[in-house]
Amino acid sequence: MNLGINLCFAVKRLLEPQEWAAFVRAELGLTNVQITFDLLEPWWPEPERGRIIARIRQAATEHGLHLHSACVGLAHYLPGGLLDPDPDARALARTWWRRAIDVAAELGVSAVGGPLGSISVHDAAHGHAEQRWQDLIDAVAGLCRHARAAGLAQFLIEPTPINREVPSTLEHCHRLMDDLARAGAGNAAILLDIGHTVYEPLYGPQAAFQPWIGDLAPHLGLIHLDNTDRHGDPHWGWPHPAGTIDVSEVWESLRTAGLADLPVMLEVFPRFEDDDETVHRHLLDTVTHCRAAVSTGSRA
Fold this sequence. Notes:
Elements: E1 2-6, H1 17-27, E2 32-36, H2 46-62, E3 66-71, H3 74-77, H4 87-107, E4 111-114, H5 121-125, H6 129-150, E5 154-157, H7 170-182, E6 188-193, H8 200-203, H9 210-216, E7 220-225, H10 247-256, E8 263-266, H11 276-299
Parallel strand pairs: 1-2, 1-8, 2-3, 3-4, 4-5, 5-6, 6-7, 7-8
Helix pairs in contact: 1-2, 4-6, 10-11
């Protein structure tokens, strides 16, 4: 498994690039890193932002890390984004994404992405969802062009298990990728969060990640790997007493789909209130667990 880690665990904790870089390389033994925009805000003024980017790149180089991609964090996931009912808010979201793409290019990563936004309760109830869809296609196609011009290989789109978000189902994903292909956005790809795919309140008790991986294999650009009880989106690691995700089964599904080399980023998001030492141990245990599960699966 091409295992790396999203830096969401460092939010409110390891704020210095040298600190998270040393921890990821020396203690977790990983080299592939995904930057979260919770640590590097695209809205920040360019002179200060540029100096922070330079420090991030320096820390990564000094510790032998590969900055693979940059992803929406918690902060930018909250607004309506590209699906907001207000046209001014959608325009601001497009500007934010263009700035995020520019930041990603400065970081030297190859991809940028995350969830795209939320349709309001009013728009969903009053027949405006299709217009929001068309707005989204136009916006993402433009962002894909901007990403290509900036030198990025992929614009990553993350499905979420909320029925007013796009995409939230396999059908959504296929339609979205088809519409974007017709719009010339061939560099769009899916960022699949394993925990999202098994959310029973939306997908039912039969929910499984295997159909998502198998059906979307040609469109997958990256995996977020996290543990869940299937009734929330807790982003736990391993082991967890209420966790249900078998890492060896994820690995087998990726291999079966011909995706053994696909980047897999651990996205373990501790609660802000969790004790620092507990978080430290949980991350170490998570990496150890995942490596053991992959090793066992590879011998099967």
